[in-house]
Amino acid sequence: MIKITTSENKKVYFASDQHLGAPTAEASFPREKKFVAWLDTIKKDADAIFILGDLFDFWFEYKTVVPKGFVRVLGKLAEIKDAGIPIYFFVGNHDLWMHDYFEKELNIPVYHAPQEFLINNKKFLIGHGDGLGPGDKGYKRMKKVFTFPLFKWMFRWLHPDIGVRLGQYMSVKNKMISGDEDAKFLGEENEWLVQYCKKKLTEKHYDYFVFGHRHLPLEIKLQKNSMYINLGDWIQYYTYGAFSENTFNLLKNE
Q1: What is the full per-residue pLDDT of the chain (254 aa) written as tens digits?
Q2: What domain range is 63 assigned to?
Q3: pTM listed for this prediction
Q4: Residue 173 neighbours by CB distance under 10 Å
Q5: Smallest Cα–Cα separation from 12: which of 22, 3, 21?
Q6: 216: domain CATH number?
Q7: Considering its fold, how many domains does the chain have in total?
Q8: Is-contact 116 125, C-beta < 8 A?
């Protein structure tokens, strides 16, 4: 378990689901600039930054090639990391083919599953959130195919001009991949991430569960001292999380 203790007047920030590149590079460019401006603002008082997946709407790492674009956000992340601020990146369902580019080029650790963190002595379970809980069966089957080593090997043999274009098309068009066709609150009994968190609480106590993927800002009290938080997105809501001392706030970037 990674331990983080914030300094006085410092915070830990969380953001998810920017989906840069969707529906087109040109259309998402203003959102990229807005996200980069936010990163530039929070670096003044950030002790750590968590990016919880789907930063890109499509991402695939060939051995020597990555999708072009996203220079501003990659440059800002490199600047912040080089300044000594830890950044933790969690792979989402749109960038699940991320391998070691962030680790080698930016020195940013990449996680493919939820991880436990102890922040100011509060226990956090943090991840993107795709494929967790009792539902999402169609996506779970699709994820098994997409992460199967033979499938990735075969896709890598496509020329990048073909592979990236195909991946971008599928990512924008396929709602099963996007996971945002029902971005409205379904009630606690139908929110599969809520059910996942409640089941985890039967095994171990967590003060905070922090996820993305749902594209919907949510704060749900699970028990007296346990909260489920969904960070929303940077497409419609522009919301993010900020944890300081012992308080978590879900905020909107105006």
Answers
A1: 899 999 999 999 999 999 998 888 898 999 999 999 999 999 999 999 999 989 998 776 777 777 777 899 999 999 999 999 999 999 988 777 778 889 999 999 999 999 999 999 999 999 998 878 676 665 556 655 566 576 666 666 666 666 566 666 666 665 434 444 557 777 777 788 999 999 999 999 999 999 999 899 999 999 989 999 999 999 999 999 999 988 999 999 98
A2: 2-252
A3: 0.87
A4: 10
A5: 3
A6: 3.60.21.10
A7: 1
A8: yes
